[in-house]
C-alpha cells in the first residue's frame, strides 16, 4: 500500500489530572528523522513515543509536539524560604533608611523576588503519565496514517498514468528502431551519390561494412528490454504493502540511464524527440515519487 510522506495528525487524552495534546506533522525526508518537542520534566518518555511512531512510519521527517496541562495542581509543592525573605526585608529597610525613602516594604516587594517562593512538582509515577499520554500519541498516529494512505492512493493513480505514458513512448521508439538502419543505408547512398555523382561506382561491400558498423553501434534492443523490465518492476512495486519510495527512485534512475543511452546511440530525429518526451515524463514521475514513503 503506497503511503505519502506528508500528513498531519492530532490526538488528545486526559485522566482527570493530566491533559495531553499531541500533534504530529510529517514531511519528505530521505531517512526516518523523528524530532519531539515536549515538557522537559517528562522527557524520559521520549523513547516510548518514538517506538510507537517507528512502528508505523518508516521514512520521512516526523515532528511531534506534546503539550501537557495539569487539570489541578495537587501535584505541586510550594516552598517559601522564610529566612531569605527576612533577609531581603531587612536589606530593603536599610536601603530605604539610608536613602530617606518613607515608603513601607510590602508583601508584594518580597514575593516578587524569584528565590522567595519556589514551586516544585512532586515526583510522579512514570507509568501513570505514560498511560495518559499513550492514547493521545496513538490517536495522532492513527489519524496521520489514514491521511498518508489516502494521499498515497492519489499519488499512485497519477504515477500509474505517467508511467503508462512513458511506456507508450518506449513503444514508439521500439517501432521506429528496425527502420533506422535502412534509413541510414539509403541516406548514406544518397549522400555519396550527391557528393561524387551518378558516374561513381559505389563499392557495395564497403557500403555494407559501414552499414553493419552503424547497425551494431545503434542497436538499442538491450536498452528496450531493460526498460520494459524496469517498468514492470516499477508497476509491481506500487502494489507492495511496504515502503517503496527508495526502490522506485532507484528504478527511475535506471530508466533514465537507459533513455540517455538510446539518445546517444541513435541519431534519428523521431527517436530523439521521443527521448526528450521520455525524460520529461520520467522527471514528472520522479517528482511524485519523492513524496512516497
Automatic annotation (TrEMBL):
Keyword annotations: Endonuclease, Hydrolase, Nuclease
Domain Endoribonuclease YicC-like C-terminal: 173-293
Domain of life the protein comes from: Bacteria
Transmembrane portions of the chain: none
Domain Endoribonuclease YicC-like N-terminal, residue spans: 2-157
Cofactor: a divalent metal cation
Coiled coil ranges: none
Membership in a protein family: Belongs to the YicC/YloC family.
Protein name (record): YicC family protein
Organism: Acidilutibacter cellobiosedens
